[in-house]
Here is the input.
Amino acid sequence: KWISQKEIFVKTDGNALNWAFNVFFLKNKFMQKSRLFELFSAFSKTEKRELGKFVHSPVFNQRQDVAALYQYFYENAGAKDPQTFARKTVFAALFPAEKYSAAKMDYTMSFLFRVLKSYLVFKEQTSNAAANQIALARALRKRNLGRLFDKEYKIAERLLEKSPFRDAGYHFDKYQLLLEEISITKQGSRNLAGSFSEFSSELTTYFIAKKLWQACSAVMYKTVWKAEVEEEDILEAILNHVQANDYSGVPAVNLYYHCYKALTETDSLRWFEALRNLTRSHFASLRAAEVRDLYLVAINYCIRRFNNGEKDFLKEAFNLYKEGLQLGTFLENNMLSRFTYNNIVMAGLLLKEFIWVKQFLSDYREYIEPRFRESTYNYNLAIYYYQKPDYGKAMTLLQQADFDDVMHNLNARRILLKIYFEENELEALASHITSFKNYIYRRKELGSYHRELYLNFLKYTQRILALGKYDKKAAASLKKEIEKVEPVAEKGWLLQVLGK
Here is the structure.
């Protein structure tokens, strides 16, 4: 049946209309939802100051309106009043003598956004002193400036020798340096046939280290997301090669070889313990990102053992988190991933480390990315109160918080459901289950695994509610069914409820 547009409007969910209107309104009136604002807000104070020099350099920017917009952002970075970044307010500050033009505001924002991206590329490309020196030597070699090349090449050599790092990146830089030596040899300036062997070795080492890291990542991905990742044929050859050759003095290879073995071998504990010792031994020779990867592999290993029923491994994972926090391992650009924050809280609460968790929530709140800070903090504080338990405070936080992250939203709804159930708020529970289902069906980005995980949880919660109070036979039958079904969120809780 055809219906008019007016009827469609009337029959549409009012909340959806309000949401659509608010998105349109915010996008067109305020800058807070723009990509420019999001990127600028992610910069540290030091980076924002450094960015000023970049923006005011005629090499990278020649537009005065762009420099003025940067200055406005810099001076008002901590403003609490949303009107500060209303587009018309900003336009009036930049162009006081002109009538507001949305197009001109868009252009200025777009140009500044482009400069910010250029700054990130520049910062990324110049962060490695040895790589910069190699690039300089390459440029001189391309210009056939052999004498100048020799001097800069030797400086690059010394930089690499003095570098404390012996990770995959070090071997790649060494390969790049030797490539320049071989390239200038081809130009006839010297005879260095022996360099080819070292050149080949460095490239092989880099390749093996990266392939082993990739293999470890694939194993963890399969574990977390229950997804199939095809293993490359070359991996077996790499593992055999490492086993047949002595890589004990090459941390970049030896560490990830032990990682992979710990994640895949049946007799994995000896590999895990060796990995922990190697990580401690080579800590100073690894960049922060690699240390973080190794800690996450070790934690992933412990969580998998814990999920298989070995309860002592939860304590080991928690200790790894605490150790990593003390070393600053989990901080990237002085920021802590909200997912790591969540996992640390959950591990602490499962171990009933309530005092430590409460302190952690407060101490590391400021390290969460600003746009996720309040929702992540409130979500985890709600979990804390739920586990204590203090259902009143937990419900208040869960009902009032606005969780942009889908997984936060799902988990918040899951916990609210359990509170309603345990508090016997049956009317609120029924309404909540309906809205929970609708949310799952609306979120198209949810994979099939998580969709099935939560829909099964809701299905079995409803079936438990439908059971007769004294129907022990039906309860026992349902319990057996839940034990066999996968995946089901909160399986342990569902079985516990049926066992009461």
